[in-house]
Design brief:
about 450 residues, Rossmann fold, 7-stranded mixed β-sheet, about 25% strand
Amino acid sequence: MKTSTNPDHHALLHLSKVWLVLLSLLVVGTICLGRQSSSGQTASPTRARRTLPASRLKVIQLPEPSASSAVSFEQALTEQQNMELPGSQRLEMPKVGQLVWATQGVRLARTTAPAGRAQATATTNPVRVYVLLPDGIYLYNSTDHSLQQTSDTDVRGSMAAALLNQPGAPIGGCQIIIAGSSRDFGARYGSRARTIMLLHAGRISQNIQLQAVALGLTFIGADGLDTTSVRRVARLARGVEPIYAAIIGYPASLVPETPAAQPTTADVGKTTALIILPSQGFQDEEYMATRRQLELAGVQVSVAGMRMGMLTGMLGGSVRADMLLNQANINDYNAVIFIGGVGAVEYYNNRIALKLAQQAAAQGKILAAIGTAPSILANAGTLKGVRSTAYLSEQARMVQGGAVYTGNAVEKDGSIVTATGRLAVSTFAQAVLDALAEVR
């Protein structure tokens, strides 16, 4: 039997072969074009953007740190109670090196070499230390005691604002950010990783503060950070948690300024406050925290006492009085603040102190007292019918002076602000600032 042929079937086979050839040519052409593009100029800008920033970053080899100081441990602890605000003068690199070495540094473990000599081996801490300087952000490498630049932008102003949430916050000569990742501790500590990380960071923060004092520097420590803002400013990786920060510098009073930049009580529009301290036995934390918060807000603070020279606190702090109490002119100040402590009894019946309180109240100045000091206001007759508070030990004196004693942590009644003590000092200082804003 003969097999019949179909012309249409042959035509379809021919067209299929043509399409296969054309499709093969198209695929080959696409591959060739892709190779040409990958080796051509269009890829070069991408590589340049990726490598150029790294080429600008630098490594700073820090000077060898010192292992001794003329400042004793006890003296450093005491000096921490009397910290001025830091100025923005640049710190010398040896001081920066000493600060970061104190954070974790090269901790020397003594071992015995084959020749019988002791040698040092470096151990590292997974907590990360970032240093913010005028020429950028650096990550401390404790193994070789160096700083590795991660950014060449000065972000100290932005970081100070993120840390303190205050306009015109001091930026210091340098800033140190302590950060860590729980993952770095996880392999060794498991579910306790974050707790251990925070304990390490706490020890490091104390080392920073003690080292700053030993170097003649001052600092503002910040915890309870806004992690999102700090991470954004410091450009930290998402998994890295900022834990503690310090703004460090020379005391502002020691930083040279031009005469035109030096403020005086006569400056137009300048807000001023007079803090009155007893000769001895003032409550250190009430004084320091109140003064620091006022100064961060731009208030110019002066200290008066019954004697010139150093006034001493209950916790060992010391403050140099700017003037004698009888030299204070109420017209020079927007606020008068009495600090408590066991020594505040010195002013309970002091004619000069009571008169200043009476003048402040009569002129609508801000009159404030904390801890045991509200009894001074009561004895001056300025709390009659005023909602006020103080330590519970002062309740009888307050009521006898006509005060409406509440026992609350802080009370603000018109231009009079009172508080119970050091645990309420931050709210107390803010209430004083609020009152100052109302009367200006």
